[in-house]
Amino acid sequence: MLGLNNKDTLLLIIVAAITLLAPFILNPFPTQSAMAQFNAGYPDLMQRFVIFGIFAIGFNILFGLTGYLSFGHAAFLGVGSYSAVWMFKLLSMNVIPAILLAMLISGLFAVLIGFVSLRRSGIYFSILTLAFAQMSFNLAYSVLTPITNGETGLQLTLNDPRILGQVTTAEGSIPVTSLFGLEMRSTYEMIFGPWSFQFNAGYYLCAIIMLLSFYIAIRIFRSPFGMMLRAIKSNQTRMSYTGLNPRPYTLAAFVISGMYAGLAGGLMASMDPLAGAERMQWTASGEVVLMTILGGAGTLIGPILGAGFIKYFENIFSKINDNILHSWFAFMPDGFENALVAIVHPFVGKGWHLTLGILFMLVVVFLPGGLVEAGQRVAKLFRRRKSEKTSDESAQSKPAE
């Protein structure tokens, strides 16, 4: 199906089902219940899940296949965002031209950075990409203020020309981003008993693009090009001795990865039309590294899992404050309640990074393959138990001699 083997087709179907049914899956608790704090089926958060999933998928093509660790991938995310916002300012509020321009400019920028950085490998390559990203951040923050609007960030204004679209609405406000008239903020809410499910147009656009990106990544992984990238990761020196030049392959992987990041940046601007230099900081580059390693570097679905895991912690655990903790432990005597709140407090709210850091450390130590390895171990355990059960049943059914 679609040029994929049965295993990859099944994986694509599973990812598609989870993505398209996310409004139901991410809202397991009734809206008014105490556990509703852990619901994540909000349009803005679901958009972040799939957008950063695209970002991580692209980074995994470079890091997971070739072994080249980039510490500056957020530069392409920022370039994609700036490009998309400029398209909204100058052309129209249609998201398609903005996304295409974001990918194009990010790809050209990746050619420039990759051509220089890929002259080195290992830690030297990582430092070069970090240096380029920090230079890009500082240029966007201060030097290129006519283009980026500096620390304030690039935003839409009533003075924008938008030669192929509305400059203002009938109410005198700025038009919203849309897909041929379908507004990205358009949301349908379905009430089912105590549950509330929201279906957002912007989310489903991002979800469909993520599925296409995931499908392309599968084809890259299974292609001869992907095999060459694995050979580079395995032993680049030996590959060079065979007469093959690895640089065109690594540059192609770098550019493809940069275009994925630009696509993610363009989608971020399409959902919320503004762009700031903070998207190009080294912390954003480090975040996608954590997503890929946490999910499982070199695997297909791992980066998506890692992106969802980190964004869930960032947006859900960070909102848990002392008032919520007291409501959870209110059934206990006051002394025990206050003690438990004091114990849990450092790990939630502003301290969510501490919890994430501990979990990341545990994954690296006990699950080097990330969340994908955890799933594989659980599946293997169930298969073993099923096999043992089948063996016991067959032994009991066998007549005694």
From TrEMBL:
The keyword Membrane applies. It comes from the Bacteria. It is a multi-pass membrane protein. Its main location: membrane. The chain crosses the membrane at residues 12-29, 49-71, 91-116, 123-144, 201-221, 248-268, 288-313, 325-348, 354-375. InterPro entries: ABC_transp_permease (IPR001851), LivM-like (IPR043428). GO terms for cellular component: plasma membrane. Keywords: Cell membrane, Membrane, Transmembrane, Transmembrane helix. It holds the Pfam family BPD_transp_2. One of its GO terms (molecular function) is branched-chain amino acid transmembrane transporter activity. It is found in: Cell membrane. This is Branched-chain amino acid ABC transporter permease.
